[in-house]
Amino acid sequence: MKITRTSYKIASWTLLIGGIGHTAAALTTPKTAELIELSVKMEEFTAHVLGMEINMYDFHQGFSLMMGLLLVGYGALNVLILKNNKQNPLPSNIIILNIIITLISALLSLNYFFIIPILLTSIPFIGFLISFITKHKK
C-alpha cells in the first residue's frame, strides 16, 4: 500500500512541478534576435476562426500558458485526491484514467518535444502504472 501511494504522489507532484516549470519557461524565455524575428512572423500569420482574426503568436502563447495551467491543475487535483483519501484505497478508475492520460501525453512528448517534457510526462505515467499494479497485487 505504501508503494501505491508513494508512486501516485511522485506522479502527481511531477505533473504539478512540470506545469509550474512550463509556465515559468513560457514567461521568462529570453528574447533573442532570432526569437523576436520568429515572433514577428508568427504575428503576421493570421487565421479567421469563428469570425475572429487570430495570429499564430498569440495562439501559441495562449496555448502554452493554458498547457501550464492545466498541468498544474491536473497535478494539484491528483495531490488533493491522495490527501483526501488517506484512509481509503485510491480509486482504480481514477488511476486508470491517469494512466491513459499520461501515456498519451508521454507518446505525444516523444513525438513532438525534447527530453524534459518527455521525462515530465513519462515519470507520471510510470508512477500511476506502479500505483495500479501494486494496488492490485495479491
Descriptive report:
The structure is a single chain. The chain is mostly helical. It has one domain (2-135). It is built from five helices and two strands. It has helices at 2-28, 33-44, 56-84, 92-112, 115-135; strands at 46-49, 52-55. The protein has a two-stranded antiparallel ribbon. α4 packs antiparallel against α5 (115-135). The mean pLDDT is 95.
Brief characterization of the structure:
The protein is mainly alpha-helical. The protein contains five helices and two strands, in the order H-H-E-E-H-H-H.
Task: Explain the layout of strands and helices.
Layout: H1 2-28, H2 33-44, E1 46-49, E2 52-55, H3 56-84, H4 92-112, H5 115-135
Mean pLDDT: 95
Number of helices: 5
Distance N terminus to C terminus?
A: 11 Å
The main sheet comes to: 2 strands, antiparallel
Number of domains: 1
How many β strands by DSSP? 2
Classify the helix fraction into a percent range.
Answer: over 70%
| Biggest sheet: strand arrangement | 1-2
Strand content: 5-15%
The Rg value, from CA coordinates, equals: 18 Å
Structural class: mainly alpha
Which properties best describe this structure?
2 strands; 5 helices; mainly alpha; 80% helix; 138 residues
